[in-house]
Amino acid sequence: MIDLSNVSLKYDNKTTALQNVNLSIDSGEFVFIVGASGAGKSSIIKLLLREKVATTGIVSVNGANVGRLKQHQIPLYRRKLGVVFQDFRLIPNLNVYDNVAFSLRVTNSSNKFIRNRVPYILNLMGLEHKAKSFPNEISGGEQQRVALARAIVNDPPIIIADEPTGNVDPELSHEILELLQGINQCGTTVIMVTHEQDMVKRFGGRTITIDNGRVVFDDVILPAGRG
Ligand SMILES: Nc1ncnc2c1ncn2[C@@H]1O[C@H](COP(=O)(O)OP(=O)(O)OP(=O)(O)O)[C@@H](O)[C@H]1O
Ligand SMILES: [Mg+2]
After folding, report:
1. What is the pTM of this model?
2. What range does the domain containing 100 cover?
3. Ligand 1, from 13, 42, 52, 208: best to mutate by most atoms within 8 Å of Cβ?
4. Ligand 1 atom with the shortest distance to the CA of 15
5. Is the CB of 11 under 6 A from ligand 1?
6. Within a domain: residue 115?
7. Is residue 151 very low, low, confident or very high in pLDDT (cuts 50, 70, 90)?
8. How many structural domains is the chain composed of?
């Protein structure tokens, strides 16, 4: 489903963010991407979203050669991906409700569906009381949950979450991970970037470690025994 083949990425022809990356992710997998700050994790996501084009190599998603998509094909392509950005990217002049509803409006969901679905998802995220607040009126952790709500509201086949637990406390981060795992169990492919190695060790699962732009580990980590 997702395939990176000999992928390198250079920014400004100077910084080499990724070097000869090979990885493939099947439909329905749950994959952690871990690694130190600056390792290249978000760069992989930028390639998957076609925010960047690989300097060398091929990125393919659902059979599409992502780097070869024409400009007019990109919006439709991106709609199949539910994305939580590391910096959230909420729309500042829309309230929480409308930020989440926006994902449904651009895909022409019916008003009736939107009126049911958005409150359901806000509730799931514990955000029902913030529906009318604007992004600059809520906390970092709340913004993060709005970003997650927006990523899942469309029920996309692939969810890509860049540090979705970076701004929340351990208990909530545990809940977010369980939520993503639940979504994964219903068949959605989930790729989750995190620097929280402890959480990965506790939950276990396929883990890809990036170091200095290279894949240095790609295997299943067994969950730590719960004593
Ligand atoms: N827009 C950019 N222009 C130039 N260099 C960049 C740009 N974005 C990232 N880089 C560089 O590319 C490398 C990989 O960055 P990337 O954002 O992929 O790291 P990351 O693993 O996501 O780190 P973090 O955990 O801090 O989010 C780093 O050396 C970074 O400084
Ligand atoms: Mg990053």
Report:
1. 0.94
2. 92-151
3. 42
4. 5
5. yes
6. yes
7. very high
8. 1
